[in-house]
């Protein structure tokens, strides 16, 4: 094997050359990419725990709520701190879901792996703690660290926002613990998802309109139930049935679950027009029509297909498309403010 010539100077001052094998150098050179790859693979497990691809889409909801109430963008410092805070908050709450559901997720997996296909929340790997890819302690530390960041950021923006975040964590834990208790847990999920938008409004204005907050709450509440929570439970229908979980699809069947989804999303899309009209930005009729069109395409159309077809893949498609709904409205509103 070829080596590397290295010159040494002995004690007598006389120089001599030695042939050094390249294997050690090759190992050192190859170790760096291997270590980097292992680190990234490990990080992907934590990203999967917090469902980061979905989390990034969720950032649009509080951003949209703040923009609608102000009628424009908040100051840059508030925007940056707000984005960091909501990212940390969603990261912590999604991970908290797996921490609290650890036993139930392990029981589901023990009864057979669920094929996730193109399901958004299964990006990278689903339930890495329950699969033994992350330890419970690692998940707990990850959740606590991000929760601390979110709590500090929320307190800095408005102490009320910190209380809302703590309440959201508590309600999320209650939601998880209700899995085998009642299907009304879906209402709890609806409340949790609205808190980010409510906190965002309070972060930019400590005294917003109660009427605006109420409509904002109902709009996000029905979107979460119809476009996120029930479709997610539909995706897990077979596994939840074996576990005797209390979810809308398990207890009432796909047909009734589909009807609930349709009603909730129709109400949400209708309320989006009210929210846009209540905004000080004063969006004109064409922008209202575009907003309603986005809701019909991303939420109502796949909901109708799910109601008619009842396929698990259609539930996943609805969940995925509805996840883009706040981002689509945020993009339209920002475009409307600049034109």
Entry summary:
By secondary structure, the chain is mostly helical. The protein has 14 helices and two strands; from the N terminus they run ββαααααααααααααα. The longest helix is centred in the last third of the chain and has 31 residues, at 248-278.
The appropriate CATH architecture is: Orthogonal Bundle
Please, how many domains? 1
Strand portion, in percent?
under 5%
Order of helices and strands: EEHHHHHHHHHHHHHH
Radius of gyration: 25 Å
**Mean of residue pLDDT values:** 88
Query: According to CATH, what is the class?
Result: Mainly Alpha
Low-confidence stretches: 1-20
Largest sheet: spatial strand order: 1-2
Mind summarizing the main beta sheet? Answer: 2 strands, antiparallel
CATH fold assignment: Tetracycline Repressor, domain 2
Structural class: mainly alpha
What general outline do the C-alpha atoms trace? globular
* Spatial separation of the terminal alpha carbons: 68 Å
Enumerate how many helices there are, as a single number: 14
CATH homology group: UbiA prenyltransferase
**Level of helix content?**
over 70%
């Amino acid at each position: 094997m070829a080596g590397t010539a290295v010159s040494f100077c002995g004690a007598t001052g006389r120089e001599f050359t030695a042939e050094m094998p390249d294997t050690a150098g090759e190992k050192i050179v190859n170790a760096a990419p291997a270590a980097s790859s292992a680190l990234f693979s490990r990080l992907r497990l934590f990203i999967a725990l917090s469902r980061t691809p979905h989390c990034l889409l969720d950032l649009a909801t509080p951003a949209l709520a703040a923009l609608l109430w102000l009628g424009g963008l908040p100051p840059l410092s508030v925007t940056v701190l707000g984005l960091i805070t909501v990212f940390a908050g969603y990261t912590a709450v999604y991970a908290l879901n797996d921490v609290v559901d650890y036993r139930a997720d392990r029981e589901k997996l023990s009864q057979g792996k669920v094929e996730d296909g193109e399901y958004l929340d299964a990006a990278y790997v689903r339930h890495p703690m329950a699969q033994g890819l992350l330890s419970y302690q690692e998940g707990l530390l990850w959740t606590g660290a991000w929760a601390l960041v979110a709590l500090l950021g929320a307190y800095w923006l408005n102490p009320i926002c910190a209380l809302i975040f703590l309440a959201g964590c508590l309600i999320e834990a209650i939601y998880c613990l209700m899995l085998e208790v009642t299907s009304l847990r879906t209402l709890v999920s609806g409340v949790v998802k609205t808190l980010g938008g409510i906190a965002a409004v309070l972060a930019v204005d400590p005294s917003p309109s109660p009427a605006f907050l109420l409509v904002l709450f109902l709009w996000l509440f029905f979107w979460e139930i119809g476009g996120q929570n029930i479709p997610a439970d539909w995706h897990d229908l077979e596994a939840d049935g074996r576990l005797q979980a209390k979810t809308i699809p398990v207890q009432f069947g796909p047909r009734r679950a589909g009807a609930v989804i349709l009603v909730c999303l129709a109400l949400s899309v209708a309320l989006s027009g009210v929210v846009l009209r209540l905004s000080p930005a004063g969006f004109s009729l064409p922008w209202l029509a575009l907003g309603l069109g986005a809701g019909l395409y991303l939420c109502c159309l796949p909901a109708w297909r799910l109601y008619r077809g009842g396929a698990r893949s259609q539930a996943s498609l609805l969940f995925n498309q509805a996840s883009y709904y706040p981002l689509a409205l945020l993009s339209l509103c920002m475009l409307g403010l600049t034109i």
